[in-house]
């Protein structure tokens, strides 16, 4: 048996290694984005170099990043709000009303989760065109919401099941309506789960490429579509690609950082049990 | 039950309402068909070539008053986007840039608008139009049932490049034939590098292979037009591909032309197979450490040099609301003066015969003669509606050969069998 | 509130989500089922030729198809095992750290999850570059660079992609398991500490059973995603070399949009779905929402 301090050291080493494994690949891209061409293609990799902003200038002159940003933000925020709101409420409806077909409906969501994207694309394209909404934000928002919904419903159900039933009961006895009980009692308890759902659905939408490219047009392209124009199959301009990649990565990482705060901060099931 | 349906409909309506409230109202400026202010949307792949073209389009807008929007997307998604739009008849694109291998399928599916009546309409053509200057072989690709479906513009052709300094340092001379190339590649492979090959599972390898096959008097089809992958000339070409891969640079088996070009540009690769459209970057003094040091030659040959060309074409879509204006733009983009300006910018090879010998261009881009040489004996990949399946089978076979997983004859036999039901 | 009012409310809560999924997924699914029985061209569905189950039979006679099924299974199981092991392990380790530190670390660890697949492709193409890449440089220092084929050799390409996938999606497991762990009452740990249980004992006797349902859930979500893997392979190898990384989704995409065999592509997608149901249905029964209160 290891002693307590050496066990702690071991844990620290594991966590540090995992941190390096996570950070180094990202750091490579950020670093490359500030390198001149001749500093990029070196053996071994240069860790110290004279930084330049040329790659950013090139990337910005090549793409309408302001617009991509706006579009991405709009699509990601709207679709993840819709997915989390609809999904959580749906899960509440399924778990807490003694609904007769709740099990069948839950299975139905499971089926939705399994539909391959390749299958969705063509029918959605035709559908959106026939109602005149092709090329608008509706396409990616609808697709992203739909892709995220099934797993959010699952996630929310599994968290709701952990909430003690008597909590809701006592709120109802105190005169709350069902919805008030949900908002005041249940939501705070499942907040960590909801936060995870927000992060996950937002990251999917922010990064998704195929729907965002095929269901939109030049005015509604999102960031991944924008950067695929340099990072895609043709270009190997590492400097410019890295700059574009950094521009895309940083905002969602920063947002992720702030949202994470709520992840483990919701009132825990145990704390309210008494 | 009825109430439930009603509720469903209400909720659906609500969702659509909410979502469309936050969707944008831009209609692309397409509604104005009065002729006063026409907007054309064109589809092509993104990259430096597209950026240069955008600059040139400003001249067209000034001359004609027509606004042009270029929707340049990643090459990997281009065909899908064009196909979805044209098949659903969205009218999103007026003019599409299409590769020759897509053309038969596009024509067969009725996606394209015939342009014969426009070609003969002087009013739509620029002053230096000169239809006969287009390479006639390339024009033929765009014809079906006597109708013309586009104008050819941008030619790509695999070529061999070598670093003169690195060859000279080893006392080697530029190779031309298979055996010479193999010897040079082996020499460098023994010293830790080798030949840079685009041997990734994909179309680049097949383009190289088709050159090898034809340069050895081989063919994928026999005299009766039946698929005949395993004839001896083809097997020899496959054996050469395998041998060459064995002395290729580390990583080549996951490289496309772009990575080969990068390795040559960075002075790492002594010799490699790249594509004419990227060769201009090697001569770009700002970014290339090898500008002025590179030699160019056709892909090495078994019996005599033979090139495999691919060509990009401007095609008017069948669902365009402004086919005349779209044609006018295509004619302008492929006119002699526009093509020359484009070539001067980045070394692109245009489908205009008169430009191969243009003194200004040859001076700036030393590989023009090599490409011109290759073009004398060159053809496209087979162009039938089933050709994509042949290409796919060959991609798999060549990738397996490149990594040494199989033998030349066996690989081709396997492809032949896999295609038996397609090519009867 | 009356009983019937309540069930109206329940219906009102459930229906919008159901509607979205029906509209965007079930309708396309029906379309796919019908079209998989036809030889048709996009835009000319009406003139398609009815071929019955031809494509489904063809799938099981097609070497490339069967090989891609195997590749997909291998990818799913290896990636899932590594991601679950790492994700749960790190999540549990983090609960033992001081709160502020664990929060900071978790935020750092979750970065890869937030990055677009296109950029993941870019990052790993850099890292695996045989000349300039960090992976080869470091392996070279260990004298292993020649042994490792990276993305360029069939023997190592799939594994190399799995490594990239593990890098990207372990944080997903970490995130969900963390939120599951946060619902375990502190008293439980304290009780076990007082009993003098060691780290491993606490892990296997207390922690894992308590978050069992969450683990089943992430296995389901991640497993079904892994089985449909597309982006990362598309970005790194496009199915090569020698088809060694051809997954079912890549295969379907190539058939549908590169070779215009839409009917076959739809059939491949549906077979993918059927296999998924077979594989994961047993897990669904065990997951949280299937157990009666």
UniProtKB/TrEMBL annotation, chain A:
Its main location: membrane. The keyword Transmembrane applies. It is a multi-pass membrane protein. Pfam families: BPD_transp_1. Keywords: Cell membrane, Membrane, Sugar transport, Transmembrane, Transmembrane helix, Transport. The chain crosses the membrane at residues 12-34, 68-94, 114-135, 141-160, 185-206, 241-259. It is found in: Cell membrane. SUPFAM superfamilies: MetI-like. It comes from the Bacteria. Belongs to the binding-protein-dependent transport system permease family. MalFG subfamily. This is Carbohydrate ABC transporter permease. It comes from Cohnella silvisoli.
UniProtKB/TrEMBL annotation, chain B:
SUPFAM superfamilies: Periplasmic binding protein-like II. Keywords: Signal, Transport. This is Sugar ABC transporter substrate-binding protein. Gene3D superfamilies: Periplasmic binding protein-like II (3.40.190.10). Pfam families: SBP_bac_1. Belongs to the bacterial solute-binding protein 1 family. PROSITE patterns: PROKAR_LIPOPROTEIN. Residues 1-23 form the signal peptide. PANTHER family: ABC TRANSPORTER PERIPLASMIC-BINDING PROTEIN YCJN-RELATED, ARABINOSE-BINDING PROTEIN-RELATED. InterPro entries: Bact_solute-bd_prot1, SBP. CDD domains: PBP2_TMBP_like.
From TrEMBL, chain C:
Residues 69-283 form the ABC transmembrane type-1 domain. It is a multi-pass membrane protein. SUPFAM superfamilies: MetI-like. InterPro entries: ABC_transporter_permease, MetI-like, MetI-like_sf. It comes from the Bacteria. Signal peptide: none annotated. It holds the Pfam family BPD_transp_1. Its main location: membrane. It is found in: Cell membrane. Gene3D superfamilies: MetI-like (1.10.3720.10). The chain crosses the membrane at residues 12-34, 73-95, 107-127, 157-181, 202-221, 264-284. Keywords: Cell membrane, Membrane, Transmembrane, Transmembrane helix, Transport. Belongs to the binding-protein-dependent transport system permease family. This is Sugar ABC transporter permease. It comes from Cohnella silvisoli.
């Amino acid at each position: 048996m290891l002693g307590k301090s050496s066990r702690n050291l071991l844990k620290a080493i594991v966590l540090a290694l995992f941190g390096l494994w996570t950070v180094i690949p990202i750091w490579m891209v950020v670093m490359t984005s500030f390198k001149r061409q001749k500093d990029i293609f070196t053996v071994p990799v240069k860790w110290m170099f004279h930084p330049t902003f040329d790659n950013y200038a090139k990337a910005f002159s090549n793409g309408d990043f302001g617009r991509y940003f706006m579009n991405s933000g709009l699509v990601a925020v709207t679709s993840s709000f819709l997915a989390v709101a609809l999904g959580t409420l749906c899960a509440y409806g399924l778990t807490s009303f003694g609904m007769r077909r709740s099990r069948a409906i839950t299975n139905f969501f499971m089926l939705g989760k399994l539909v391959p994207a390749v299958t969705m694309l063509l029918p959605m394209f035709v559908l959106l065109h026939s109602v005149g909404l092709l090329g608008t934000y509706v396409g990616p928002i609808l697709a992203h919401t739909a892709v995220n919904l099934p797993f959010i419903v699952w996630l929310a159900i599994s968290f709701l099941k952990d909430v003690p039933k008597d909590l809701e009961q006592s709120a109802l006895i105190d005169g709350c309506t069902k919805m008030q009980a949900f908002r005041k009692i249940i939501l705070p308890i499942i907040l960590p789960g909801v936060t995870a759902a927000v992060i996950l659905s937002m990251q999917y939408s922010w990064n998704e490429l195929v729907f965002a490219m095929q269901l939109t047009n030049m005015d509604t392209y999102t960031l991944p579509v924008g950067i695929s124009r340099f990072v895609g199959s043709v270009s190997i301009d590492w400097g410019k690609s890295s700059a574009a990649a950094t521009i895309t990565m940083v905002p969602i990482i920063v947002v992720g950082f702030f949202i994470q705060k709520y992840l483990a901060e919701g009132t825990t099931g145990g704390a309210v049990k008494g | 039950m009825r109430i439930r349906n009603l509720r469903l409909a209400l909720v659906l309506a609500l969702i659509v309402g909410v979502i469309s409230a936050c969707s944008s109202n831009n209609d692309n400026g397409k509604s104005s068909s009065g002729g006063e202010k026409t907007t054309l949307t064109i589809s092509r792949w993104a990259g430096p070539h597209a950026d240069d073209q955008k600059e040139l389009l400003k001249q067209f807008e000034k001359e004609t008053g027509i606004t042009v929007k270029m929707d340049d997307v990643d090459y990997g998604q281009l065909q899908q986007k064009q196909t979805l739009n044209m098949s659903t008849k969205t009218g999103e694109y007026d003019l599409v840039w299409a590769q020759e291998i897509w053309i038969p399928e596009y024509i067969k599916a009725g996606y394209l608008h015939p342009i014969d009546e426009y070609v003969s309409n002087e009013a739509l053509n620029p002053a230096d139009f000169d239809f006969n200057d287009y390479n006639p072989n390339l024009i033929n690709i765009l014809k079906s049932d006597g109708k013309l479906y586009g104008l050819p513009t941008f030619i790509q052709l695999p070529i061999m490049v070598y670093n003169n300094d690195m060859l000279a340092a080893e006392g080697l001379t530029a190779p031309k034939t298979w055996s010479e190339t193999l010897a040079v590649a082996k020499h460098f492979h023994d010293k830790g590098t080798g030949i840079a090959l685009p041997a990734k599972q994909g179309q680049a390898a097949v383009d190289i292979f088709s050159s090898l096959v034809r340069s050895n008097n081989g063919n994928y089809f026999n005299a009766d037009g039946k698929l005949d992958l395993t004839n001896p000339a083809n097997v020899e070409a496959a054996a050469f591909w395998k041998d060459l891969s064995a002395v290729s640079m580390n990583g080549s088996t996951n490289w496309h032309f772009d990575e080969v070009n990068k390795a040559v540009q960075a002075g790492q690769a002594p010799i490699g197979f790249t594509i004419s459209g990227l060769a201009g970057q090697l001569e770009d003094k700002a970014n290339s450490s090898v500008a002025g040091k590179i030699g160019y030659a056709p892909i090495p040959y078994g019996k005599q040099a033979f090139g495999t060309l691919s060509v990009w074409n401007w095609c008017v879509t069948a669902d365009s609301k402004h086919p005349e204006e779209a044609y006018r733009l295509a004619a302008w983009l492929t006119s002699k003066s526009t093509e020359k300006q484009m070539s001067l910018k980045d070394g692109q090879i245009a489908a205009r015969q008169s430009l191969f010998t243009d003194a200004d261009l040859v001076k700036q881009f030393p590989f023009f003669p090599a490409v011109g040489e290759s073009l004398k004996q060159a053809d496209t990949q087979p162009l039938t509606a089933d050709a994509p399946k042949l290409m796919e089978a060959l991609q798999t076979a060549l990738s397996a050969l490149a990594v040494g997983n199989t033998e030349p004859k066996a690989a081709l036999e396997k492809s032949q069998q896999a295609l038996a039901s397609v090519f009867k | 509130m009356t009983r019937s009012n309540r069930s109206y409310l329940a219906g009102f809560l459930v229906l919008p989500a159901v509607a979205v999924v029906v509209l965007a997924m079930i309708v396309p699914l029906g379309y796919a089922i019908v079209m998989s029985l036809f030889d048709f061209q996009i835009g000319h569905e009406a003139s398609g030729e009815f071929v019955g189950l031809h494509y489904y039979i063809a799938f099981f006679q097609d070497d490339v198809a069967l090989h891609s099924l195997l590749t997909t299974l291998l990818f799913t199981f290896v990636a899932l095992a590594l991601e679950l092991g790492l994700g749960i392990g790190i999540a549990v380790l983090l609960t033992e750290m001081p709160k502020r530190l664990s929060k900071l670390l978790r935020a750092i660890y979750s970065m890869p999850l937030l990055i677009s697949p296109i950029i993941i492709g870019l990052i790993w193409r850099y890292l695996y570059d045989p000349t300039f890449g960090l992976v080869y440089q470091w392996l070279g220092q260990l004298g292993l660079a020649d042994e490792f084929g990276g993305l360029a050799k069939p023997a190592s390409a799939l594994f190399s992609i799995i490594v990239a996938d593990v890098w990207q999606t372990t944080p997903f497991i970490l995130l969900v398991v963390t939120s599951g762990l946060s619902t375990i009452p502190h008293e439980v740990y304290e009780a076990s500490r007082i009993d003098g249980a060691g780290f491993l004992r606490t892990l296997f006797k207390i922690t894992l059973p308590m978050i069992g349902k969450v683990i089943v859930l992430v296995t389901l979500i991640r497993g079904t995603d892994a089985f449909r893997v597309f982006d990362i392979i598309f970005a790194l190898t496009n199915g090569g070399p020698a088809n060694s990384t051809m997954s079912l989704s890549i295969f379907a995409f190539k058939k549908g949009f590169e070779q215009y065999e839409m009917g076959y592509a739809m059939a491949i997608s549906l077979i993918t779905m059927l296999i998924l149901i077979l594989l994961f249905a047993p897990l669904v029964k065990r997951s949280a929402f299937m157990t009666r209160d």
